[in-house]
Amino acid sequence: MTENILNALTFDVEDYFQVAALAEAVQYDDWPSMEYRVEANTDRILALLDHAKTKATFFTLGWVAERSPALVKRIAEQGHEIASHGYSHQLIYNQTPDVFREETRKSKKILEDTTGQAVTGYRAASYSITHQSRWALDVLCEEGFTWDSSIFPVHHDRYGMPGTPRWPHRLRTDKGHELAEFPLSTLKLPGYTLPIAGGGYFRLFPYWFSQWGLGSINRKGQPFVFYLHPWEVDPGQPRLDVKWFSRFRHYNNLDVCEARLKQLLSRFKFTTMTQVLRSRGVLDA
Question: Can you tell me the distance from the alpha carbon of 68 to that of 71, in angstroms, rounded to the nearest whole number?
């Protein structure tokens, strides 16, 4: 059964210095002066996907798209899906609704003007649509988005909406709008819901455990969503001076991540987020 299930492969296109775990060392105003590595790292991922004959969804930061329009065009021209990752990678629950709306609209326009294609999917920076910022779902609907992948149904110090559905579904917002939601994938253990969707978890857990956990979702007849960032295949990136826990979160096992990704691509069947949502009847064709 598992080999016939389409899973969503996604990449959050941001640079290493834009990650929330490193915010203690890099301010937003410092970004233009940092070594810019996202283009080369994203091209490495594009080459991997080309070799594997696999399509993916690239949630692209508006700040990056402004500086690298040719990169965004390359992603789209190679048949991948472009979705929005917001503009400035700020945590939504630290923003006002007006600021969030302005940034969401700005990023959407940049991506659409660059690709000439409609952008209808969204993922929040650091999965920061929580119970506290649930209002952002209404803003997304009002700004023309039809699907989202921001909700992580787990307990976490920075994100999470525990108790929400674990599988792709249609949700109703507080104002009565409808939105297709693909929650970040989790593994249900006795008394605990474990994140298994990728990123730092993919680097922290042994590869065999990630493969087993993701496979168990398929064995239930459900698709999973997998995510990674371009900086996670870049062990040569600058090391910033941050607290030990942030350092562990960000730099752990960067040197093995690309090899693990290659293994994953050979083990599971992947496509874009929109294709999976449509195949599940959660999103209209």
Answer: 5
- Give, to the nearest 10 degrees, the angle between helix 97-115 and helix 69-77: 60
What secondary structure letter does DSSP report for 19? -
Residues 200, 247: contact at Cβ < 8 Å? no
Give the separation between CA 231 and CA 250, rounded to whole angstroms: 9
Over residues 160-183, mean pLDDT: 93
Model pLDDT, residue 157 = 66
Number of domains in the chain: 1
The arithmetic mean of pLDDT across residues 249-269, rounded, is 96
Q: What is the residue-averaged pLDDT of the chain?
A: 95
Q: Enter the pTM of the model.
A: 0.96
Rg (CA), the chain: 17
Give the residue carrying structure tokens 């650091």: 126
Give per-residue pLDDT as tens, 190-215.
Answer: 888 899 999 999 999 999 999 999 99
CATH number at residue 264: 3.20.20.370
What is the rounded CA–CA span in Å between residue 262 and residue 189?
Answer: 27
Distances (CA, A) of 260 to 209, 253, 265: 12, 10, 9
The answer to whether residue 85 is domain-embedded is yes
* 186-189 and 192-195 strand pairing: antiparallel
Give the whole-angstrom CA distance, residue 172 versus residue 133: 15
Kindly state whether residue 23 falls inside one of the protein's structural domains. yes
